[in-house]
Design brief:
By secondary structure, the chain is α+β, with helices and mostly antiparallel strands. 38% of the residues lie in helices and 22% in strands. A hairpin with a 2-residue loop joins strand 3 and strand 4.
Length: 263
């Protein structure tokens, strides 16, 4: 089954892109689910798919295809018939690809990717005390290699750790000889949340400076591209969670030693 779609620009500007793909009439299995043929979209990563470009380096078929300076001083647009004629002319390359898998100069073709099954994000599955992550998905440009990078976000376990540290500090600060007012506990809690943020800064610097500029596929070594980000949950902490908690403990121990040295 041959599929193509015209995707209009989301802000209603006079431009669109053309996606194409092919799929079996029986449908496809993607991310642990079966998708019927009538519901298959040409942008599905499980398909051999691609884009039709009007010109090298450009993916939009557009009426406002003029230099920026001209668009600023004039609202005149191209003739719609010219855009249609260009689309019909370029679409012959899509037909050639469908028939012979010949890649024309205005086609960008991507390989099919076998993505893992979808992860449920419900609290019932992952639990209330799960660790939350912003996960970036990278895919190889040459094969089906995949890689995920997990970024830490504030989650319930970190709030619990901050509360425990607040109780420990309040036990000292709110009693004699310091005898701070009871509402200082809220300031201590805010300070513990700030300590968590500070503890995460070394990890951020490490990933920015120490991380690779171009991610390589673990299978073939080809460059990988970022395909999107989403939120995930896990009952078990990743290694970066353990490092962050160790830094957080070190910050509190240092503050405790500083307080005891002045007592």
């Amino acid at each position: 089954m041959q599929i193509f779609a015209l995707l209009w620009e989301r802000h209603d500007r006079p431009r669109f892109i053309v996606q194409f793909a092919e799929a079996p009439l029986s449908g496809i299995d993607a991310r642990g689910e079966h998708i019927a043929s009538e519901d298959v979209l040409p942008g599905n990563a499980a398909l051999l798919r691609g884009w039709l470009n009007p010109a090298p380096g450009s993916m939009w078929f557009r009426l406002d295809d003029q230099p920026l300076w001209r668009r600023l001083i004039s609202r005149q647009q191209n003739d719609p018939d010219q855009v249609v004629d260009l689309l019909v002319k370029r679409f012959s390359e899509v037909m050639e690809w469908w028939e012979r898998k010949t890649k024309g100069p205005h086609l960008r073709v991507l390989p099919a990717i076998n993505l893992p099954p979808k992860v449920s994000h419900s609290s019932a599955d992952a639990g209330v005390f799960a660790f939350h992550y912003r996960t970036a998905e990278y895919r190889c440009t040459q094969c089906t290699g995949a890689r995920s990078k997990h970024g830490i976000t504030l989650s319930i376990p970190y709030v619990v750790v901050a509360v425990i540290a607040t109780v420990a500090w309040s036990f000292i600060l709110l009693r004699a000889p310091l005898s701070f007012p009871w509402y200082y506990a809220f300031s201590v809690f805010a300070g513990e949340l700030l300590a968590l943020f500070i503890a995460g800064m070394p990890l951020t610097i490490f990933f920015i400076i120490g991380g690779p500029i171009i991610h390589r596929c673990p299978s073939c070594g080809a460059p990988m591209t970022l395909r999107g980000q989403h939120f995930t949950k896990s009952q078990k902490p990743h290694w970066n969670d353990s490092v962050l908690l160790l830094i957080f403990i070190a910050i509190n121990v240092g503050a405790w030693l500083s307080l005891l040295s002045r007592a």
